[in-house]
Amino acid sequence: GGGPRGGGSAASQPWVETGDAVSNMYTATREDARDHMRLRNVCFQQATQAYLAGNKALAKELSRKGRQHAHSMKAAHDGAAARIFRERNSNTLLPNSTGGGGGGGGPRMFDLHGLHVAEAVAVLRRELPNCRAGGERVAHILVGTGHHVKGVRTPARLPAAVAEFLHAQHIRFWEPQAGMLEVDIATVTPGG
């Protein structure tokens, strides 16, 4: 963190639904990926059993099917991530006419709730340079605080991963409120 503060612009961001709203969206959009994951696992387990039983042809076929399900799982996750991000950010993706950011007249806000770490980083790699190209000064990134993460032994990975990405890219940011990062767009490398 550190750096110049955004002058209270954090207060201009609208409330976003989290918890059950994100959980339900996540469950609905990730169902196909979970199905392919289960089928992939079954195929790989059966391939191992077939190989150990000496049936190499069946093992090869089951491995091929497992790889197909792994590919389908990744495609399903990619589609789910795009749908989640689009739905959670539908009113903030286009800069407003004042050059400040999202639809509410304040800084552009990127809600990363419901995205996996790699998906969230890919969004930031794509969108932060767009903010700079659009002449924006700051952007807000909602990473959450981990209150809704399932399993008490699983800390929220997204806030730490986003902060690590921003540090690695030498992008200045601060946390004006828990679960929200404010980014100094001038420190974003043009073009990514």
What does this structure look like?
- This protein is an alpha+beta fold.
- It is 49% helix and 10% strand.
- The protein is built from 4 helices and 4 strands, in the order H-H-E-H-E-H-E-E.
- The chain has a 4-stranded mixed beta sheet with strand order 1-2-4-3, covered by helices on one side.
- A hairpin with a 2-residue loop joins strand 3 and strand 4.
- Helix 1 (20-52) runs antiparallel to helix 2.
- It is elongated, with a radius of gyration of 20 Å.
- The relative contact order is 0.16.
- The model is unreliable at 1-8, 10-15 and 96-103 (pLDDT under 50).
Poorly predicted segments: 1-8, 10-15, 96-103
Question: Beta-strand percentage?
Answer: 5-15%
> What fraction, in percent, of the residue positions are helical?
40-55%
The number of E-state strands comes to: 4
The termini sit apart by 20 Å
How do the helices and strands follow one another from N- to C-terminus?
HHEHEHEE
Largest sheet: 4 strands, mixed
Structural class by SSE content: alpha+beta
Mean pLDDT: 82
- Cα radius of gyration in angstroms: 20 Å
Strand order of the largest sheet: 1-2-4-3
Cα shape: elongated
Helix tally equals 4
Features:
single chain, 192 residues, alpha+beta, four-stranded mixed beta sheet, 4 helices, 49% helix, disordered N terminus
Please give a quick description of this structure.
The chain is α+β, with helices and mostly antiparallel strands.
Map the helices and strands.
Layout: H1 20-52, H2 56-88, E1 108-111, H3 117-133, E2 138-142, H4 158-168, E3 173-177, E4 180-184
Parallel strand pairs: 1-2
Antiparallel strand pairs: 2-4, 3-4
Helix pairs in contact: 1-2
